[in-house]
Amino acid sequence: TNQTVQRKRVVTQTGIYDGEVVSSLFHGQGRFQWRTGPNAGDVYEGQYAMGERDGPGTYRYRNGDVYVGFFNAGLKHGAGTYKFHSGAVYKGAWRQGQFHGRGTYTCGEGPWRGDTYTGDWAWGLKHGWGLYQAAGGMRFAGMFVNGRPKAQQQAPDAGTT
Questions:
Q1: 110: three-class secondary structure by DSSP
Q2: Minimal CA–CA distance to 54: which of 87, 33, 25?
Q3: Residue 111: partners with Cβ closer than 8 Å, 6 or more residues away
Q4: For residue 12, what are the contacts with CB-CB under 8 A and spacing of at least 6?
Q5: Most C-beta atoms within 10 A of its C-beta, which of 64, 121, 123, 149?
């Protein structure tokens, strides 16, 4: 089969794609702007593999949120930074579209503005060792389970596993 990379503009039912195409699939560097549906107004620019967002890219949401990082099979996956329009920021590891692994979240508004959590995440929740620091000075270092602090504990020494 012919695997020639072509540069094309493709108009779909939901938006417009400008970029590289192989065998009628988005593949390589490209930009997609949603015109209709639940993602209308969103723009993705980055790598595609066989029709899916895959590799490094930037996704700009119509509400002002921006994600810069890696994708796998269309989902945020690997290292990335998500800046919320509220001012909150998550920088760290992603798995299948959710915070997962090591990361830092900084609150952007409300009574928690400026508070940070640096530590382990599992499927979008604080889970494992972490440090929560309130902008006002309060600190909690210890285990988090399903998003909540478990019990005050001493963090392990640096360099130990």
A1: helix
A2: 25
A3: none
A4: none
A5: 121
CB 46 within 8 A of CB 53: yes
* CA-angle at 144, arms to 66 and 99, nearest 5°: 20
* Block residue for tokens 């020494």: 157
Burial (Cβ within 10 Å: 0-12, 13-18, ≥19) of residue 25: middle
Residue 155 φ/ψ, nearest 5 degrees: -65, 145
Report residue 11: phi and psi, to 5°. -100, 120
Give pTM, 2 decimals.
0.88
Query: Which is nearest to 75 in space by CA: 123, 37, 145?
Result: 123
How far apart CA 89 and CA 137 sit, in angstroms, is 19
Cα separation, 102 vs 86, in Å, equals: 22
Backbone angles phi, psi at 112, to 5 degrees: -100, 10
* Cα separation, 52 vs 88, whole angstroms: 27
pLDDT on residue 146: 94
